[in-house]
Structures are given as C-alpha cells and as structure tokens.
Amino acid sequence: MIEYKGYTGVFEFDPSIDAFHGRVVGLRDLVTFQGRSLDELHRELAESVEDYLEVCAGIGKKPERPYRGEFLVRTTPELHRAVAIEAESAGTSLNAWVEAALTSVVKGAPPPRREARKSARNASRSKERASSGS
After folding, report:
1. Rounded to the nearest 5°, which phi and psi values hold at 26?
2. Residue 36 near residue 18, CB atoms below 8 Å
3. Distance between CA atoms of 116 and 58, rounded to whole angstroms?
4. Which one of 39, 40, 116, 122 is separated from 84 by 20 to 30 angstroms, measured CA to CA?
5. Cα–Cα nearest to 67, from 3, 14, 12
6. pLDDT digits (tens, 9 = 90+) for 76-122
7. CA neighbours closer than 13 Å in the CB half-sphere of residue 71
C-alpha cells in the first residue's frame, strides 16, 4: 500500500504490461495508476489523485474522501449486548471499546479489560480518601 493526501493505493504486478498496476481503494470512483518501480508508483499515484481532484473541481463535484472514520456495524442482539457489557465493565463507551478492539486486531494493542476498570476505580477511591483525609 502507498498513500498520497489521505488516498491509499494498492497495486500488484501485471505481467501482461510488465509493470505494476494499482488503484485507489475506498472510493466509488475509479482512480488507477501504474509503474515499474516503487518510486514510479508513488509519482503515478500522486498524479492520478491530482487528476481526480482536478476533474472533480472541473465538473463541480465534491471529491470522495475515503474512510471518514465512521461506519455502521450490524450484529446480533446477543453480541451487541455482550460488547456493551464489556465496554461498561471496562468503564468506557461502546464506541471507544469497539475502536480499541479493532485497534487490537490491526495494531496489536489490547482492548480495555475489566482489570483496567478495577485499577481505575481503585485509583479514584484512593484519591478520594486522600483528599477527604481518611
């Protein structure tokens, strides 16, 4: 994957043209590029994105922005309930818990756990006791 101005390009080798062929992902519009080296792919992706932005401006269309950071997830009521309980037990919102869980899959960071909630609650109680002088 390569990126330019928030647009992500993926590519693969195409032996029929003896070069790499790529496309920008996350758009309904088709934006493609090709090159024989990584440097050339970077240049061609940038040129294709700039061309796309110019075409959009020329026709008065707002360019698509990939991945605005919001999506709807449909699941079973049982899983929804279980995840909501986990989030509440961890002392976080459902959205924050799901974001942490997704991050754990993508980057290896663990989602909030009940132990973290207990530690936070205990730290809060310790601060309360210290400030009340008990």
Report:
1. 90, 10
2. yes
3. 53
4. 122
5. 3
6. 999 999 999 999 998 999 989 998 888 888 887 666 666 544 444 45
7. 10
- How many angstroms separate the CA atoms of 11 and 23, rounded? 6
DSSP letter for each residue of 72-120: -----HHHHHHHHHHHHHTTS-HHHHHHHHHHHHHH-PPPP-HHHHHHH
Asked if residue 66 lies in contact with residue 73, where contact means CB atoms within 8 angstroms, the answer is no
* 17 vs 66 pLDDT, higher one: 17
The pTM of this model reads 0.57
- Residues near 105 by Cβ (< 8 Å), separated by ≥ 6? none
Burial of 38-64, coded b for 16+ CB within 10 Å and e otherwise, reads eeebbebbbebbeebeeeeeeeeeebe
Distance, CA of 25 to CA of 83 (rounded, Å): 30
Taking the alpha carbons at both ends of the chain, their separation in whole angstroms is 57
Backbone angles phi, psi at 53, to 5 degrees: -65, -40
The per-residue pLDDT for range 10-61, each reduced to its tens digit, is 999 999 999 999 999 989 999 999 999 999 999 999 999 999 999 999 999 9
